[in-house]
Design brief:
single chain, alpha/beta, Rossmann fold, 7-stranded parallel beta sheet, two-stranded parallel sheet, 10 helices
């Protein structure tokens, strides 16, 4: 006799960092998983680990979300495997290696496709099924960068994360009464490969340790926030204090702080 169906979570960018941590934490909670990213070898290794250690069903689907066709292909692949997604974790993301003028338009267009358009597209594809079933969570891994004054050198990054926050806020209101929620999780500095890929590891390593959090903590807190239906969750006391302070500082002062921070951590 089969037991109750296990909930299913789809996690983008699941091969490392916060995405991998979401997968591990959700497996601990009894979720089956669909993992997607470009690096299939890493996904397969994680899938084997979670199957063996947590008894989870784990499906691996390679996807490059910089391809505009990828969200629809991913949706069809999930449906083709007979899975109904209960939690969509829009985590895939990265930072550009230089400022706005130092990158090509192709780099910026791909960045916007991954960070903004693919998130909106995947959400648009998966929300109707959740509403029909009367349950589900949409989770956007945003950033404290989306809540404070924009910094030079990460021009589109802050803008894309601000989009995710506003998207979650508006969507959550549209979904009231459906049993489906939307949550923007807003971490700050997180121990992961993010800064290595962006080429900022050496500079950001000068940041005091109290500003940093583990990917596991970010994921665990983010899952809890989504499960209680919280629309915007800022990870950690330090980040909440920064977000609050930047909200009430005079705009000129906030701009000055971000100008100095940008020059400290990035080339532009």
């Amino acid at each position: 006799m089969n037991g109750p169906a296990r909930p299913v979570a789809l996690i983008t960018g699941a091969s490392a960092g916060i995405g991998r941590a979401f997968a591990e934490q959700l497996a601990i909670q009894g979720y089956d998983l669909v993992l997607t990213a470009r690096r299939v070898e890493r996904l397969e290794a994680l899938a084997r680990e979670l199957r063996e250690q947590r008894g989870a069903r784990v499906e691996v689907i390679a996807a490059d979300l910089a391809d505009p066709a990828s969200p629809a292909q991913l949706f069809e692949a999930v449906r083709g495997r007979g899975l109904a997604v209960d939690m969509l974790v829009n985590n895939a993301g990265y930072g550009l290696h230089a400022g706005y003028r130092g990158t090509t338009w192709r780099e910026n267009a791909d960045f916007l496709q991954v960070m903004v358009t693919a998130v909106a597209h995947l959400t648009h594809l998966f929300v109707p099924g959740m509403v029909e079933r009367g349950r589900g969570q949409i989770v956007h891994v945003a950033s404290i960068a989306g809540l404070i004054h924009g910094a030079p050198g990460s021009t589109l990054y802050a803008a894309s994360k601000a989009f995710l926050v506003r998207f979650a806020e508006s969507l959550s209101l549209e979904l009231e009464g459906t049993g489906v929620t939307a949550t923007a999780v807003c971490p700050g500095y997180t121990w992961s490969e993010f800064h290595d890929v962006a080429g900022t590891r050496e500079r950001v390593s000068r940041t005091p340790r109290l500003a940093w959090m583990s990917a596991e903590t970010v994921a665990r807190q983010g899952i809890a926030a989504a499960q209680r239906g919280q629309t915007v969750y800022v990870n950690g006391v330090f980040n909440r204090a920064v977000a609050m302070a930047m909200r009430y500082l005079p705009r000129a002062t906030a701009r000055g702080i971000m100008r100095a921070q940008g020059r400290r951590y990035r080339k532009f």
